[in-house]
Design brief:
Blueprint (H helix, E strand, L loop, with lengths): L2 E6 L4 H10 L5 E4 L9 H10 L2 E4 L3 H10 L6 E4 L11 E2 L8 H7 L2 E3 L3 H15 L10 E7 L4 H11 L6 E3 L9 H8 L6 E7 L5 E8 L9 H13 L6 E3 L22 E8 L4 E8 L3 H16 L10
Parallel strand pairs: 1-2, 1-3, 3-4, 4-6, 5-6, 7-9, 11-12
Antiparallel strand pairs: 7-10, 8-9, 10-13, 12-13
Helix pairs in contact: 1-9, 4-9, 5-7
Length: about 325
């Protein structure tokens, strides 16, 4: 029997991409609501309670409302908002985060899909902190650039309307109170919040995230190869991982850091650059903010919850 899936908020950017990925699946029945009734609470409640798994692609408050509308004890939920990401009753939906995370997601009733920005930081830093190469009290800076689709319909409309006059590079979140910070701090294992400076570029989707490390402040200084080996070992041990670690090379520049490199896929590639003489390193994550950073991760989590091939409906 086909699993019943309801995408609450399917008209949004993430919802549309999830639906596109799932619509040809024969093992799924996609429940829908007529466009004119999408704001009808009773209709939404009916679909939420009919579904085997509901995927919420909504603002935080609306996502909380949807969860409250579920009155049965069976509907499972994947929430793509930030409403439940640090809630201990929800499994965190970054499957490659730990060796046991795929099973935690597979067994969970409630799964919080991770944010796009947090995944780059967690992917690079959590394995290093776990391995003891970088301490949890390390003063960390995190930055990068993402496509404007990460800002939702309003930002997409603004950029597309601006045309050639759109900003090519615009930092934001300059009060350092971005809503992703609690999620980043918790799941990296850091004792204190990182200094996070995101930027948006004049391209629709894709992202490159940077973690610079001033290693000289550590009592025991890891080499670039030490950092690379810890990341490679971590992801080699994760079943059905979509995260790759690029070879450790002494490159001054590389086209592999193009933020659009993995667009329309669920892949993430990590890079390590280092100058051991200066005790400096740079960790880089390249992935699609709408793929691994949103809809791709949601489909990966759905597959885990259904017990099917993790790569179903996901472009490599």
């Amino acid at each position: 029997m086909a699993a019943k899936i309801f995408i609450d908020g399917e008209a949004g950017t993430t919802g549309l991409q999830i639906r596109e990925r799932l619509e040809d699946r024969r093992d799924l029945e996609l429940l829908t609501i007529p466009p004119e009734r999408r704001k009808d609470t009773s209709m939404r409640a009916q679909r939420l309670n009919e579904a085997d798994i509901a995927i919420l692609c909504l603002p935080d408050d609306a996502a909380k409302e949807s969860v409250a509308l579920i009155t049965n004890g069976t509907t499972r939920v994947i929430d793509a908002s930030s409403a439940h990401r640090v809630n201990p009753d929800w499994a965190y939906g970054f499957a490659e985060m730990d060796r046991a995370q795929t099973q935690a997601i597979a067994r969970a009733r409630f799964v919080a899909n991770p944010g796009c920005w947090p995944q780059g930081l967690i992917a690079t830093m959590r394995p290093l902190i776990t391995a003891g190469l970088v301490p949890a009290d390390f003063a960390l800076t995190y930055s990068g650039i993402s496509g404007y689709s990460g800002g939702g319909k309003a930002m997409i409309a603004d950029y597309e309307a601006a045309g050639a006059s759109a900003s090519h590079f615009m930092p934001y979140g300059l009060t350092f109170e971005h809503k992703h910070v609690p999620e980043m701090t918790l799941y990296t294992g850091l004792d204190a919040a990182p200094l996070f400076v995101p930027s948006v570029g004049d391209f629709a989707q894709g992202m490159t995230a940077f973690v610079p490390l001033q290693l000289a402040q550590l009592p025991k200084i890891p080499s670039g190869r030490d950092l690379h080996a810890a990341l490679a070992d971590h992801y080699a041990a994760i079943p059905d991982s979509f995260v790759d670690v690029a070879p450790f090379e002494g490159l001054a520049k590389t086209p592999a850091l193009d933020p659009q490199r993995h667009n329309n896929t669920n892949r993430m590639t990590l890079h390590v650059f280092a100058n051991d003489a200066r005790a400096q390193a740079l960790l880089v994550a390249v992935y699609d903010n709408l793929g691994k950073g949103a809809s791709g991760a949601a489909v990966q989590n759905l597959n885990l919850m259904l017990g099917v091939d993790a790569r179903e409906s996901l472009a490599a």
